[in-house]
Amino acid sequence: MEAQAQGLLETEPLQGRDEDTVASADFSSMLSEEEREELKAELVQLEDEITTLRQVLSAKERHLVEIKQKLGMNLMNELKQNFSRSWHDMQTSTAYKKTHETLSHAGQKATAAFSNVGTAISKKFGDMRRK
Predict the structure, then answer these.
(1) How far apart are CA 112 and CA 103, in angstroms?
(2) pLDDT for 76-87, tens place per residue?
(3) Model's pTM, two decimal places?
(4) How far apart are CA 106 and CA 98, in angstroms?
(5) What is the pLDDT of residue 40?
(6) DSSP assignment of 40-97, as one string?
(7) Buried b / exposed e across 65-87, counting CB within 10 Å, b at 16+?
(8) By the 8 A CB rule, do 36 and 44 touch?
(9) Domain spans of the chain?
(10) What is the pLDDT of residues 108-124, one digit of tens each?
(11) CA–CA distance, 75 with 36 (Å, rounded to integer)
């Protein structure tokens, strides 16, 4: 019996055709009339709540725009502030500091190396002139 039950229970996730089958299944015949009425009432209530929330959100967004206008904030100012904040955050990050130190050290070494090469070339030209 357990082996038969095992075969009926699939452990694989739903495939596209399985999802379509579930989505097109008519579960309404399994509901009593009372359950259907309760679900319809809940559906109407949820739709009303969603509509109310959308209206509240829209009103808050309008209020936000008004406040920003009164403060003289516009898109360009916000972009500048975001860029400045991001630049500052990047400069204060550990990775940036380590990279800056490494590149600075490498620059100093490169400068010293070029100086040494320049000195060596000058010395060679000087030696060549003397001969």
Answers:
(1) 14
(2) 888 888 889 999
(3) 0.39
(4) 12
(5) 96
(6) HHHHHHHHHHHHHHHHHHHHHHHHHHHHHHHTT--HHHHHHHHHHHHHHHHHTSHHHH
(7) eeeeeeeeeeeeeeeeeeeeeee
(8) no
(9) 31-75, 93-131
(10) 999 988 888 889 898 88
(11) 50
